[in-house]
Sequence to fold (121 residues):
Amino acid sequence: TINSGRHLKVWDMRSSDKKHSKLMLLSGESGSLNCAAKHPTQSHVVACGDSNGVLSVWDMRQERYPVTLMEAHKDGVWDICFHPLKPNHIFTCSQDGSAFHWDGSASQRSVQLAVGAGGVP
Fold:
């Protein structure tokens, strides 16, 4: 789960303990976490978007903090998803009206997707 306190909490559904099994923390100036997506083939990788437009990538095998932080949007990230067949590709959309395609396998920056009136491409 994610929350406004900048926490990413992981729950082990196999455990009878009602407490989260791992607590990850987004520190610094970042806003609250708004959305999260699990990598389709690497279950230890999670991407999150926050209220300040930052995209964070977390490796759940690491201690407590994200492995990557990127200033993705000018305003809060509303949604994030991995491409189901090409998981190096991440898509984000924001309150600022922008949508981006992030290619983790290339050295190039993200590509802004064209969005027309009413959010229809």
